[in-house]
Amino acid sequence: MKELLLGLIGAGIQRSLAPALQEEEARHHGIRLHYQLIDLDGSSRGADALPTLIEAARIMGFDGLNVTFPCKQSVIPLLDGLSEEARAIGAVNTVVCEGSRLVGHNTDGSGWSWGFRRALPRADLARVVLIGAGGAGSACADAVLRLGAERLVIVDKDAARAAELALRLNRHFDGNRATSNVDVKAALDGATGLIQATPVGMAMMPGMPLAESLLKPSMWVSEIVYVPLETALLGAARRIGCATADGGHMNVGQGIRGFKLFTGLDADAARMEAHFRRLVS
What we know:
By secondary structure, the chain is α/β, with parallel strands linked by helices. Helix content is 38%, strand content 20%. The chain has ten helices and twelve strands. The strands form two sheets. It has a six-stranded mixed sheet with strand order 2-1-3-5-6-4, sandwiched between helices. A six-stranded parallel sheet has the order 9-8-7-10-11-12, sandwiched between helices. The longest helix is centred in the last third of the chain and has 17 residues, at 247-263. The chain is globular, with a radius of gyration of 18 Å. The protein starts with a strand and ends with a helix. The mean pLDDT is 96.
């Protein structure tokens, strides 16, 4: 029986469903897979421990890693190579061991697209607002432009980071479709949809990334947080009649792509999604 050793590096990850999803899907393919949580909250060094952890993964013979907040960008200089997608997005969430080389990939964008198309197939992409220009936000921005968004407005508490992301996107995509704005209220004026790509709303970071009064029934809302599945933002959006996509859709999409990268095999999408929904119920 084939055996694989995987891990997840990040902060506050004890409620991650990645181990259960990957191990269960592997079982159906006759693979013995162990998925180890490597929680930075357990270290006094926090994210500063990342170089040590990557070197330890090499020594211990990990077959691959997932990487999440706050390491998706800081992991890049520690790797031996990047996929084209990871390079374009400027963030890595999946690392695959290829012989002696660690190669970074990004499944955030493709995972978000997979879930978004399933949950909101008729979404209006005329003017999309993205909150959060970090690793996950960068991937969602890339993905929604690939889906055909006519305008994308990026809002981040770090205005320079939002502006830099818009500049990078406009170098990759025709039409100068991406802009940044420090004022979320102005950004949302006339918006047809909202992507929430910050950690706000997570169990360890409760709350909303914007005032509830700024939501309008005419806009769709896509959330990337999945613990909890019903964030304060989604609850508020649903109360006023917005079409919504919860973070579970993206999480399953990431899991499907990650399984392919780690094993070379295709996951059963329906089976993985059903397992995810059972776990969160």
